[in-house]
Amino acid sequence: MTKKRFQRGVLPAMAPGARRGSARAHHQLIGLFTIGAALLLVLNIAILSIPGQRRVQATAMQNVTGWVWSSNGGWLSMNDTNTGSGNYGVSVDVNKKIAGFAWSPNSGWVCFGASCAYPSCNGMQAPDNASSTAYLDGSWVAHGWAKFCNLGDDGWISLNCANRAECGTSNYAVSYATSTGNAAGWAWHGRTPNGWGWMDFSAVKINIALVSQPEGPDPVRCRNGKDDDGNGLIDCFDPSCQGAEPACPNTETHCSLIGQTNCCANGVDDDFNGQTDCADPGCAADAACAPVDCTVGGAICSNPKCVNMPGCELCMNGAKEIATTSTQDCTNAMCATYYPGCTPAWFQSKYGNVYAQAGVTGTPPPPGMANATYCITSAGSIVQAKSETGCVEPSSSENVSLPTNGNGYASSLGRIDVAGILSGRYGTVKSTTNPNDTTLIETSPLAGKVFVYDGTATCPAGGYVVNAKTFFNASGQTAKGNGLLVVKGCDLKITGNMSYDVAGIGAGQYLRNLASFGILVLCRYSSGSCVAGTGNITIDPGVTNLVGTMYAERTISTGSTGNKNTDQPLQVFGALVAHQVKLQRLSSSPSTPAERVIFDGRSVVNPPPGYQDISKSLPAVGDKY
Description:
Blueprint: E1 27-29, E2 64-70, E3 74-77, E4 90-92, E5 98-104, E6 108-113, E7 134-136, E8 142-148, E9 156-158, E10 174-176, E11 183-189, E12 197-206, H1 333-338, E13 347-350, E14 354-356, E15 360-361, E16 375-378, E17 382-383, E18 391-393, E19 410-411, E20 414-415, H2 418-423, E21 429-432, E22 450-454, E23 464-466, E24 469-471, E25 482-488, E26 492-494, E27 498-500, E28 516-522, E29 525-526, E30 529-530, E31 537-539, E32 545-557, E33 570-583, E34 595-598, H3 602-605, H4 612-616
Parallel strand pairs: 13-34, 14-16, 15-17, 16-18, 21-22, 22-25, 23-26, 24-27, 25-28, 26-31, 28-32, 31-32, 32-33, 33-34
Antiparallel strand pairs: 1-15, 1-33, 2-3, 2-12, 4-5, 5-6, 6-8, 7-8, 8-9, 10-11, 11-12, 19-20, 29-30
């Protein structure tokens, strides 16, 4: 069973109603849950209203002003600053996404982009099965769709001829001048008869100051995960942020500002200038980059640069070169510390804890490294495992059990309402009988759905297969970015990398918009026992990056090629929870663990559907360290 511990962190409109109605694993943990000790979110959320709710004043983020003109339909107001127009507005955010509502006294509300997901606008399936998005490209040319909400499928307005590959016959687009924000060009509403036809945007303007913010040297914008100035470079990779201490070190030797150590010998380009460690001129005076004589007669075997050089211990030849020691090869202290081939595979829970009910046994981390940022706790023994804070608690009396079929999926950890999840209580259920995920999981966005594969009757060899995925944030007051995959009565195999949308959420967006993915893999039971080949998650050895809170009723296996020279390190942003977690990667490096689980907080601030109770019931800890 999994034990876990959680240290509580410090959490440092639209339209008015008045207008319209080795071969073995390097170690195993019996249950693992990584949870961060602190979660810091900087939120700036604009409050919007929706049709039929009380009126509110338009916010500053509704930064598109002026009027659109059509000789067929008349004037379309883009913002409530126009006389007598009500309370609403269209906006362009710092990621150049267009959203919000405009108002026509003749034709009613017009939604833009993802705002067309609002129910009264009949969903967001644009023509030719395109997703209803609207955005400005790098040249400030608009792409995507708007829509007359009350016209259903006849309401779509194309902002660019490229939407329907018709630029060869009718070349049109709406664009904006980057210096002034003034719009030009035409959109097209092609409904016949009685459509608006050509729609002139030349009397529309964007407040440029509210769209494009300088990335740096602001320390907050340089660490928010967004391309604030729209130049394609995010945070510390933008030259304007480099040197914006403490956001981005301005030299390689200042790496401690972003939590790194051994600045000139850690294998990391700490100042983002394309030069790493001693190749960076900033490290020229560092002792790690000083020249060393490693020739026979001049060898300094205690220097890591001389390990495995003639005259020192040759770390992989089966012989003892240094007569003054009784050790050889990787048993020699210098080889074990500095020679990569002698570094055993090791595991790291970054910004989290490790819990194991039956004990933790593994290989010690390299010097200066730790297995867990905060605490390692077990009811059993803890052998060769290290916490960064020094918190190691063997023989702990605290017993935190996993939700399982035997306890009705309710335990001291919390409750997983399996029946409610499968019945649609937490989100719309979408099912498939195809054992290979091709169309089941909708990634743009997950939209709060529960994706179900039921293999209870027939589970194919190898289980249900999930391929590479990128999960995108949602946009809009009611839109959801979370989702849950349920594999019932079968195994799950992950064959490709998974990632989240690189854009964060900011002003005018909501926590529910944040992409957040979960996996729930359940056993098939016979006579009260889990049937073999069910309830397990296996990860292909070629997978290097995963995201999400993953729960397997039996086992999570990280996968291995069986060869330390071909195994790659695995990084998971989220949490691993299982009766048994098998850490199988053999990749070895003094600075990079074979498996690293980084808690990113999404499972708490926007939990996947049905995981809400797990998030709320994470136990508090009283340890002082």
